[in-house]
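Subgroup meeting minutes
Present: P.N., E.W., G.H.
Scribe: E.W.

1. P.N. recapped why we're keeping a running log of single-chain structure predictions: easier to compare across weeks, and new members can see raw inputs and outputs side by side.
2. G.H. added today's entry (192 aa).
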Amino acid sequence: MFDKETVHAIKKGLLWHQRDRLFSRWKERYFILTRDYLHCFRRASGSERISEMGQFLLKIKLVDVEKVEWENKKTYSAVVLNFGRDGRIFLRSTEGLEEWFEYLEECTLASKERRRALRHSHDGKPRENNNVTPSLDDWLTNRQKIPSARMSTDTVSTRHQEDYSSFLRKRDWTPREHDWDHPSLDNRLSCE
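Output recorded in log:
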């Protein structure tokens, strides 16, 4: 069902998370980094918890991250996921933040490169998402290369034309005598 390569966890662990918004606070969250996404979960609570991972909160597409930055503050350092006009997300940790930064930077660049490669065809022309036009253009170009004598759609045999016209004749509606009679007390539906 899932491709192993896309759901394989590259790094996971607890990080402090803050959005670049007014009144936003630092919250401890459990993160899982895969090759194209950064998954965010609540930190599990309770004495019977199996792991640090709790309820799913959000999934960040790494291809949407414009830049992964390192920011030094007076009392801590943070990794910044910059989304341009859509804001920023700050991540910090007491241990292993440099490793998170390196993995996030590598995965973001690789994800963008994969996206770029998918948008370009084998001949180097960019393809738009959900656009049928390039394949239609290819089909029309290939169709023009076929000699006109070999195109089966250009000519229809007379036998097929006769069959089709007889089909249409059978399908034609011919009014019967009582089809359009006005309703009377005998032929209308009663509500009683």
